[in-house]
Prior knowledge:
Number of helices: 4
Structural class: mainly alpha
Largest sheet: none
Number of strands: 0
Amino acid sequence: MTNEQRLDRYLSTLFRYVEKGVLLLVGGLALVAIAQQVIGIFGKHQVRLEDVLLIFIFLEIMAMANIYFIRHSVPFTYPMFIAVTALSRLVVLQGKNIAPENLLFEGGAILLVSIAILVIRFSQRYSSDATEHCENAAAEDDKTQ
């Protein structure tokens, strides 16, 4: 093994562990943020929708970190779900004194992100179905030869 290959292997291992450490930190900070929100809810003796949505955002961040540890990749739709929840929370927080066009813009953004999620999900389903069909056809061709 050459020196360059050893260096590449070392750097790859280093970055893999740093990546896992940062993901662990992100998940841990999300857990701390959830605890802070719950303590705040008990302190106010009141549960508001904005608090629940914020906890849900933190939960989605933890789930995204967990999915990375399981699959070693994060589906692109997870951050998009977080964006929809964050936009929903923004709508809830603004109150009644905002300009109506802002609600339309924010609602439109939620709709666009939701459509993008659907497009990505359907494209992944059909591309994987097509890939499986090609692989099955290739396997059948191998059997006949």
